[in-house]
């Protein structure tokens, strides 16, 4: 951590960014780090490869968010910090521009293997429940109090990556931190309402359509849902969070792995994997060049949708067989 603290203190102007389609952990960690660096007297800009979703607009009341694609002008910066990812490739076209700048890159992440990413300085802990939890640790190391905005950012990170404290990564640190943040004034109900109670009127119909498409495979141990381009366009039009289909499928008795496959506009397939028990979906994702956590991982598969479905079924079958032999 000492090296990373030196990196933060040595630079004057920072550009904070994260993976494409930034989620709650990525954005919450960016909020918290933005206000930490401002408190240290630094110049800070958040520039993501994609605009933040409507559900996260409430963060704008205290934190400015930007996004850049193509040749969009970037603010001046001395260093880059990647949050919730460790590879420039996860930042799309913006990432290549940042890499070409030659500026040093810091990484704050909790995914397996992130210490081997593109960071010249890294603060990585794969046992941490969320990237925001790591930023909270930085506040302690630097002796800085959490502002109300930063506290809300850390709380958003925690609930995003622990499923509102339902997942197995909701450990003692998470609950202690959550209690601290609520005591500091974080309004969990406000965050919940913004995230889940502003859905487009068509969202229920789309969720029903997705659930109707799921297939139970491998003796009902794999629940697989595939979204073609038409469904993806429909979801984009109403700003629908496609991951909403994951938990209903994971709740089915006997299901050990859930796979959501989304056909992208370039013809590739984005795969999201979730596990219920002891199947390591991070290892499955890694076979396709992806990564993540033992119970939540993903990958971009360079193949057509139908071929990706077959490949995931085969990979999960192998993982289930390996797990059975270990028991």
Could you please describe the fold and organization of this structure?
Helix content is 41%, strand content 18%. The chain has 327 residues and is an alpha/beta fold. The chain folds into 2 domains: 2-196, Alpha-Beta Complex (inorganic pyrophosphatase (n-terminal core)), CATH 3.90.1640; 203-326, Diaminopimelate Epimerase, Chain A, domain 1, CATH 3.10.310. A hairpin with a 3-residue loop joins β11 (291-292) and β12. The two termini are 38 Å apart. The mean pLDDT is 95.
* DSSP summary: helix tally: 12
Low-confidence stretches: none
CATH topology of the largest domain: inorganic pyrophosphatase (n-terminal core)
Task: Indicate the CATH architecture of the largest domain.
Answer: Alpha-Beta Complex
Roughly what fraction of the amino acids lie in strands?
15-25%
| Element-level helix/strand string | HEHEEEHEEHHHHHEEHHEEHEEH
- Going by CATH, what is the homologous superfamily of the largest domain? inorganic pyrophosphatase (n-terminal core)
The main β sheet shows up as: 6 strands, parallel
Helices and strands: which structural class?
alpha/beta
Mean pLDDT across residues: 95
Number of domains: 2
For the record, the CATH class of the largest domain is Alpha Beta
Instruction: Give the fraction of residues assigned to helices.
Output: 40-55%
Question: What is the topology, as strand order, of the major beta sheet?
Answer: 3-2-1-4-5-6
The geometry reads as: globular
What is the CA-based Rg, rounded?
20 Å
Number of strands: 12
